[in-house]
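# step 3/5: fold
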Amino acid sequence: MGFNRTKYEAMRKKKRVEEIIHKFYEDDNNSRCAAGKKECITRKKIKKQKRYLLDSLKNLHQKFHNTSLMEIGYNYFCKLRPFWVVVPKLTDRDTCACVIHENINLKLGALKNANVLDFATYQTALETICCYRYSEKCLARTRQDCSLKILPYKEFDNSKDMAVKQWKHSKELIKDIKTKQDRYVTKYKKEICNSKPRDLVMQLEESDLIIINESLNVVFKL
């Protein structure tokens, strides 16, 4: 058989697309390298250090479209995610900030269930109070168009308590299997607590500063 230039060019283009998307996923603005040296993942005899996504796949797909001239469907974008770039679980998260984000989502979810808000993620909260959540001026709250934006709370009855789930940590004494010695470990457990809607709203207003400042630090390495 002779040389098939059309097939060769198609394969070359496909490989180039994969390289661009891999580079996007591995960008420090979109994922972070696992802190532990043992946090590796192996597939087909290829060993890689894990990287944890800093945002949802849907938001990253939207960001890719906003920052690239390439048109890639969501399913194909997800399919091309490198196997070592993973969606973080709470057990993978080694900073208090990650637990804070998860608790913010749980508070937003409780308010959504109570029909006080229409969304349940801190990413959507950022998009609501910022013109563009990857803009330095928006995140720094210096852009005139969105500096005064607030979360769109609906009217609510503050006389009724709301059940809110929250991750809380505590130290637990265990016996180390290897050393046979007692040692303390930090464990996270999801607990249910009651809160007034207004108290929850006030807590979220304080949380706004946390998620904005951290997003600013992640995106612009401040």
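# step 4/5: annotate
The chain has a mean pLDDT of 81.
# step 5/5: archive (pending)
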